[in-house]
Amino acid sequence: MNPNADNADELHVSNVTSSSLKLRWSSPDHKLFVYFEVVVMRLHDHALVLKTNVSGTELTVDNLESSQTYHAVVTAHTAQGETVSTRKGIMTTSKSPNNSIQFILYSPISHI
């Protein structure tokens, strides 16, 4: 029995910021060549944010909106296009940091 079998179908999320996050997953079968279809959608309106195919087991998703919830689906396919496994997750980006900038206006003092 594989001690990691419980984690095999998990989608891990890390490095969450206000505009990006990192998705990571394991390969379902190291003997099969697989590619992964990654689909990320904004949850509240189901807007497609990303749809791509990758050969690796991690992907950084950029250009996200702060304080938004996203739904990610990673589907593993064989080289022949057969579906091997599907992983799903829901994640929320962090709140945008307060980037307020203060401007100080000044006039030089002239000596007459």
Distance from first to last alpha carbon = 89 Å
How much of the residues is beta strand, in percent? 35-45%
* CATH architecture grouping: Sandwich
User: What is the fold named in CATH at topology level?
Assistant: Immunoglobulin-like
Structural class: mainly beta
CATH class: Mainly Beta
State the CATH superfamily name: Immunoglobulins
Shape: elongated
One letter per element, helices H and strands E, the order comes to EEEEEEE
- Give the neighbour order of strands across the main sheet: 4-3-6-7
Q: What Rg, in angstroms, do the CA atoms define?
A: 21 Å
Instruction: Domain count, please report it.
Output: 1
Topology:
Elements: E1 12-14, E2 21-24, E3 34-42, E4 48-54, E5 58-61, E6 69-78, E7 83-92
Antiparallel strand pairs: 1-2, 2-5, 3-4, 3-6, 6-7
Protein traits:
Immunoglobulin-like; three-stranded antiparallel β-sheet; 112 residues; collagen; four-stranded antiparallel β-sheet; elongated; FN3_sf; mainly beta
Provide a short characterization of the protein structure.
Residues 7-96 form the Fibronectin type-III domain. The protein is mainly beta.
What features would you describe in this structure?
By secondary structure, this protein is mainly beta. It has a single domain, classed as Immunoglobulins (Immunoglobulin-like, Sandwich). It is 0% helix and 42% strand. It has no helices and 7 strands. The protein has strands spanning 12-14, 21-24, 34-42, 48-54, 58-61, 69-78, 83-92. The strands form 2 sheets. It has a 4-stranded antiparallel β-sheet, with no helix packed on it. β3 and β4 (48-54) form a beta hairpin. The radius of gyration is 21 Å and the shape is elongated. 12% of the residues are buried.
